[in-house]
Amino acid sequence: MTFNLPPGLALQKVDERIMTLNVGPQHPGSGHMRIIVQIDGDYIVACDPDPGYVHRGEEKMAEYRNYITNIPHLERPVIHDSCNVLYPYVLGAEELLGIEVPERAKYVRVIASELNRCIYIMYWLAIYGIFLGHSTMFMWPAGDRELLIDLMEKMTGARVTHAHFVPGGVRNDLPPNFEDVCLRQVNYFEKRIKEYAAVFYDNPILISRTRDTGILSRQDAIRYGTTGSVLRASGVDYDLRVKEPYDVYDELDVHTNVMKEGDSYARSRIPWLDMMESCNIIRQALQKMPKSGSVRVKLKPNPKTKGLESVYKRVESGRGSLGCYIVSDAKTEPYRVKLSVPSFRNLIALPNLLKGEKLGNMPSVYWSLNYWPVEADR
Amino acid sequence: MSTETENPSADAKPEIKTPPAKPAANKPEPTPVELPAFEKSISDKIVEKFGDKVEVAFVKEDRVRINVDKENVHDVAEFIRDGLNYDHVESVSGVDYPQDNEIEVVYHIGSYTDSSLARQILVLATRAPRETNPIPGNDATRLPTLRDVFYSVEFHEREVFEMFGVFFEGHPDNRRLLLPEDWADLPPLRKDFAIKGR
Amino acid sequence: MLKDLVTPENANVFVGKLGDILEKAIDKPLGYAINWGRIWSLWPVHIETACCSVEFGAASSPRYDVERFGIIEAFGSLRQCDLVVVQGTITRKMAPRLRLVYDQMPEPKYVIAMGACAITGGLYFDSYNVLPGIDGVIPVDVYVPGCPPRPETLIQGCMLLQEKIKRMKARKFV
Amino acid sequence: MADAAFLALAVITIGSAIAALELRSLIYGSIALMGTLGGIAGFFFLLDAPFVALFQLAVYVGSIAVLILFTVMLVKRELIFKKIEDKRRKFAGIGLMLVIMVSLGAVFLDSGIKTITTDEPATDFRDIGTDFVTYYWPALILMGLLLAGSVTGALVLAKREDVENDQRAS
Amino acid sequence: MVGELAGNYSTVVLMFAFGIVAMAPALVISRMISPRKRSNPVKFLPMECGQVPSGEGRTHFMMQYYPYILMFVVFDVMAIFLYAWGSALLEIPKIATLPMMGFLAIMFGAMAFALYQSGRRRIW
Amino acid sequence: MTSELVDFTLVSVALLGIGIYGLAVKRNFIRMLFAVEIIINAANLNIVAFGRFLPHSGGQTMALFSIAIAAAEVAVGLSLIIVAYRMYQNVDIADFRSLKG
Amino acid sequence: MSVIAPNFKLSEFIKSLLDNVFWIIFIVVLIGIPAIMMILFVIEMPVIDGELLTPFLALTWIADPSRILPIVKAFMATDIFRVMAFPGFGFAALLAAGTIFIERKMLAKLQLRVGPFYCGKFEGILQLMGDGLKLISKEIIIPAKADKPIFWAAPVLFVAAAAAFVAFIPVAPGWVVADVDMGLLGVFAVIGFFPIITILSAWSANSKFPFIGGIRALFQMVSFEIPLILSLLGVVMLTGSLNLSEIAASQSSFPWIVFLPVGAIVFFITMLAELERIPFDLPEAESEIVAGWLTELSGMMYGLVQLGTYLKLYAFAALFVVVFLGGWNGPMVVPPFPAEILEKGIELGPVTANIPGLPLFTQDMLNGTLWFVLKTVGVIFFILLPRGVFPRIRVDMLLSLGWTKLIGLAFVNIFIALGLLYAGVLGPGGLQ
Amino acid sequence: MGTATGIIRALNSGIKHIATKRFTLRYPEEKLKFVGDGYQFDPSTGVGIAGLKGRHMLFHDHCTGCQLCSIACEGVAEAIAMVKVPEEQKQNKKSIMPQIDYGKCVFCGLCVDACPFYALYMTNDYELSSFSKEGLIYTPAQLQVKPYVAQDSEIQISDRGATHG
Ligand code: SF4
Ligand code: SF4
Ligand code: SF4
């Protein structure tokens, strides 16, 4: 950040000029967190995020539940990305329990994960729209997202909290005729999101509002350890689906979207490109998927791990790389589960990005960080 | 990277001598499971530099774990950053071991800049003494902060501080993060903090 | 005579009683009209407490469109709202804020507890930082179960709330 | 028609002029000042000068009052409600006011203007515009210079020169 | 007769007054039929996003845009001067446009300076 | 009583008196500005009234110029107030003695 | 608040109440009725159509309703009617209410949803009434340290100022509340009141978000007032009049937008900004400053401000129509009223349909109103449309837009007008 | 000019959507159609059968009172309590059956997975809102009722946009 504070700050009488604003928790522009911003006129001179309004102690509670009953819990941090947030845990648990997953299950997982990524991004986009005062951009993504939610609902039986992935595969097979419906709706969905260009991404007002605001340079993006779309918008080519492919991603053709600018606009455009990529992946996966076969390994009722062991698994979620660190001792419950969540990692950039911005840029910068407070708080 | 070789350790040289800069077959991703040779070379470099001070806990595919004492963790971290090209910390997790009377703090360190390290995670673990009646911030449960080495640990260390009571010396901003402002109980992720009914 | 009847102390009584009489006369029709207005114009306050807000957003999306019932989502200030939809978990940090938000809203106000967490704590019945339901914080009118509730369930909850308002007295407080 | 309106306007104008100076809160004072200005605009209407009246409303009430309000709101809250004056000056001021009012009023009432009234039609506002650019054009240019100078001067004044200047002051 | 033009404008005042007379009862009626509960003093605190407010509510030095208000005062005058000229334009000789152009040129100069000053964000 | 010139002049005289009183008594800079405004308005009223009753379009033109000058004056005056307030944190005229801005 | 008398006895209360009733009746009978009689006796009743308006005339109306027409006609000619109903408040409020409803439905349609639907059985047509009833029965909270008089007065004044704005709008030939020479300047004077009301309301609430919002609103309105004023100058130069009726009448052959599109565009944009409509709704930007200066307004206060906002919206749209789109001018579509229809009604086979209100209106007026309303609705549509399509702009961008681009364009417009005039295309020697 | 074309494109897109069909599902009149009758679990293969995870349904004649569902739920939300039922069901020796508190249940379906006797299903019923917490507790008798299903709306995609038909 190469910003110098307004000279007023050097004065002794600064306190008169500076006003402290509580943005949140009941604020249309904050979500479930509080950002304490200090403004000097129209400029933010200091910003202190205050998360924790949804801290529910998932990690503690995971120590009291066995490997299966943890599943509904660990998807709650990001319910609209629930497959992806569960994914590393399931992978880790599989490694600890020593399970080999059937091929078809892997494909089902990939499809579910990609669908869920789109669902997440659409919700994110909807909120981004409303943060920028674009009510249509809330409604369209929120509506088109339902196309995919409909698919997920057919697949798993729940709209958002699927509890679909289990160690050993997925809970149930695809319903009959799913492939056709899926292809049709995904194609239509892709057509729809292309429409957003005219009204949102190419809209001159949006561009002038988000271009060159909250610039996160490449070095800073790396230094802060940001991840996901934030990182890729700053020009770092890093996507775990390519770099560290899990399940069957190595058999699929995944393209990583990178932008150089690192401003709010780039950060908001990358997810949109990602969605198109996801549509591609879904189509590929539907094609390559074995047409039949088992989707779940039968487990003993209360599986146990071997001994004191730890694994760290990562997947690329809708917000970036999501890691799960599981320490097990020879019990049915994990000894410690730690979710390394992308939202929390991206939060570090927020105070640095907001400093020196105008107050009007706060919502766009904040939400372009791809931050979901519930996930950050766990 | 190769500047470190002028400090050979007393041990025998590691037998696997991969060229340090560009290991084979890591760029094209779809290569099947290979021996964790590259991972071994990483751990060897650390062992080479620090000798007895570090202990390599395991070398698995893509994961290397190193246990360090709390006195050396800062140096090791600096070496990991400067010498091995790792550049960010993905997660900082505390693990409570009441039977050992210690709290382990595990850093998962990754790299964005070095594409050969893209799938690698270096697990750096260190341990702080644990107190049965903790007074967070004012007891012996202390560790040096790594914030000046890896900026990205800032909020993670704050979280570990409030969840385990591990005070990070030198951290500029050791305030409460997630828990309510009036939290007066034990740090909740310790094993002796029992949640109700269990 | 009139003078010593109406003293400053009891002037209020007169005004109040006069109001009562007026109210009696126009209570039925006016009350009905007001209730009708309240039914069709529930503006929820924008307080997101946890992940159920996702489905609350979905409820106002084109597919479910709660605005058909006169419910406008994303309303700015709490001073103009009359419905609190508690969208999920209330943590110990959030509870005082929720209470404050509820307190600062103008009468009449209604509360919908959305999601298992808001009703009983749900998944987090044994968490150290989660309240077991919001009954202890604010009075609840309608419970909408689910985790998260489907938008349909939420809409059904809103319809139940409308039924409840219809049966309420238009003026609960003087 | 004109009489009742005249009286009402006179009361409003003079009353709010007094209020503007005497109300405790500066904000209310500003509002009262707006009342005075509006009252004067009303007089202009009565004098068949609607252009001037609306100009007065648009400029005085629409912009000068806004500027005054804004400045008053910048001032600390205590100062908005603080009254700085002393008794002696006040009485002297009242005396001065009365002397001026009585003497000038006597002069006016005594002079010949007392009986002046007119039946001629009002000036068309287009004449004003014509005057502007024909007869009074040097004044117009002068006015332009004045306005330009004032905005320049005001901006130069109001900006915070530099840091040390301010620090010296504090 | 003096004051006859004023009659035309009185309807505006009438309309203004009607606005007040018609709308004030709405507030009064609303106050009468709405429930009121003053149980909790917290209710009357300023709203601050579910936080108990701190600090003064009326201090806000939004000085960055102060020059715009200063400029408004001056250029408002200019704009309405232009009306005096513009409405009479059909009746005045063409040569008479020159003084106005001179006036405008001066004002443009001032405006350019003012915009330059207000664009410099460090000095406010 | 019909509207005559003298009525307007009397109102104007009253305003003038009030303005002078304000100038003499008040030490609050902003109040003094108010007083000045009142005086200017009194003058304008007189100008327009005379212009109307001794028919001449110059009266209105003069008034327009006068109002414009007043606007300029207020802009500068308020800038002065801002500067002074920033320096002394007060609006008391007594504090402004050393004002050189 | 309410102090209940400590030794309150019901019997006494009833007795006193009865006493009161007795006294009231006594006083009314003894003083009131004679007083009313005397007033009736003294006051001269108006003469309409050669008939003295006496209370007894009402009896004849019951027998023959058509005899009421002259009186209604006379009433319609009064200022009171104009202010209250037709070109004034009632008409504007009706259009404003329609605007709100159309806005919600149209936005919903644009966003692929339904919008208000169940309230009022048919397509949510009564939604607005529901909202109004709710708002009026909602508690009004006055923040503790608020400046109460200003806080109370601001919403009312806001509506009143908007109403004063409406007063200048000519709807049909001769149908305008205030037919004044300097209507346009009057409009500018009235517009100048809104920033003051806004900033006062914001200041009085003693809360942070309203204050920021109020100051933003102030900056915004104030900055856009100058391009607004300048953008209309072109038309004034070409018509040589500030009277809105004359401006509207001058466009009988073509609307000014044909020649001055730049001015129209500038005026449209400034209009959006003055109205705080979506690309420029910074003062109420909910994701930054909650609801801006409306944050602390609750219940009916909020309702009044909304009403005022939409009245203002109508007035601005109407101003656009009057100045640029030719006001009421348009082809005659209303059929002429033959005398026999006026007198006898329309014969439809066996029945004769009397159109009761028809004689009150003239063909001109109906036609003008029709075109006016049509054009206004069209303009309102374009005012509403950006809300669905554009995000919110930022405050510094907004100010620089107003001060550099729009003022520049406004001057371009002025020079275009000047050029047209001096080249002889328009004006005395030209088309008009 | 880029700005102007951008603005015109945006306006054009907006106006175009006014002619697009509405996507709204008019909920109380129309209801969504789901796959199958609800989520079920086949204990023999260990794989579930796709379906909506709605309110549970209990087959009294299959339930043995083995409490496995209750144990499974303990780790999730403690929604299932085993209650005594009148001894009409001969299959159930212990005469206890699950009673589900929907104020707690999170509709994860793990209890269905846990039931080894194919006695607990989930159904397409989701209209569970209630005025009171007690109304959310479903006794075994209530759970036995098969919900009335009139759900037939599905997403239809046509040229003029997606609708619910
Ligand atoms: S009920 Fe479920 S979805 Fe709702 S807040 Fe609780 S955990 Fe989240
Ligand atoms: S669905 Fe899940 S939460 Fe509900 S009763 Fe079954 S196991 Fe418990
Ligand atoms: S429902 Fe199934 S698991 Fe539960 S008690 Fe009955 S048989 Fe056992």
From TrEMBL, chain C:
Belongs to the complex I 20 kDa subunit family. This is NADH-quinone oxidoreductase subunit B. Keywords: 4Fe-4S, Iron, Iron-sulfur, Metal-binding, NAD, Translocase, Transport. Residues 51-159 form the NADH:ubiquinone oxidoreductase-like 20kDa subunit domain. PANTHER family: NADH DEHYDROGENASE, NADH DEHYDROGENASE [UBIQUINONE] IRON-SULFUR PROTEIN 7, MITOCHONDRIAL. It comes from the Archaea. GO terms for cellular component: respiratory chain complex I. The lineage of its organism: Archaea, Nitrososphaerota, Nitrososphaeria, Nitrosopumilales, Nitrosopumilaceae. One of its GO terms (biological process) is electron transport coupled proton transport. The keyword Metal-binding applies. It comes from Nitrosopumilus adriaticus. One of its GO terms (molecular function) is 4 iron, 4 sulfur cluster binding.
TrEMBL record, chain D:
Keywords: Membrane, Transmembrane, Transmembrane helix, Ubiquinone. The keyword Transmembrane applies. The keyword RNA-binding does not apply. GO terms for molecular function: NADH dehydrogenase (ubiquinone) activity. It comes from the Archaea. The chain crosses the membrane at residues 43-70, 91-109, 135-158. This is NADH-ubiquinone/plastoquinone oxidoreductase subunit 6. It comes from Candidatus Nitrosopumilus sediminis. The lineage of its organism: Archaea, Nitrososphaerota, Nitrososphaeria, Nitrosopumilales, Nitrosopumilaceae.
Automatic annotation (TrEMBL), chain F:
The chain crosses the membrane at residues 6-25, 32-51, 63-88. InterPro entries: NADH_UbQ_OxRdtase_chain4L/K, NUOK/Mnh_C1-like. PANTHER family: NADH-UBIQUINONE OXIDOREDUCTASE CHAIN 4L (PTHR11434:SF16), NADH-UBIQUINONE OXIDOREDUCTASE SUBUNIT ND4L (PTHR11434). Its main location: membrane. One of its GO terms (cellular component) is NADH dehydrogenase complex. It is found in: Membrane. The lineage of its organism: Archaea, Nitrososphaerota, Nitrososphaeria, Nitrosopumilales, Nitrosopumilaceae. GO terms for biological process: ATP synthesis coupled electron transport. This is NADH-ubiquinone oxidoreductase subunit 4L. Pfam families: Oxidored_q2. The keyword Cell inner membrane does not apply. It is a multi-pass membrane protein. Gene3D superfamilies: 1.10.287.3510. Belongs to the complex I subunit 4L family.
From TrEMBL, chain H:
This is NADH-quinone oxidoreductase subunit I. It holds the Pfam family Fer4. GO terms for biological process: aerobic respiration. Keywords: 4Fe-4S, Iron, Iron-sulfur, Metal-binding, Repeat. GO terms for molecular function: 4 iron, 4 sulfur cluster binding; metal ion binding; NADH dehydrogenase activity. It comes from the Archaea. GO terms for cellular component: membrane. Residues 54-85, 96-125 form the 4Fe-4S ferredoxin-type domain. Gene3D superfamilies: 3.30.70.3270. The keyword Coiled coil does not apply. The keyword Protein biosynthesis does not apply.
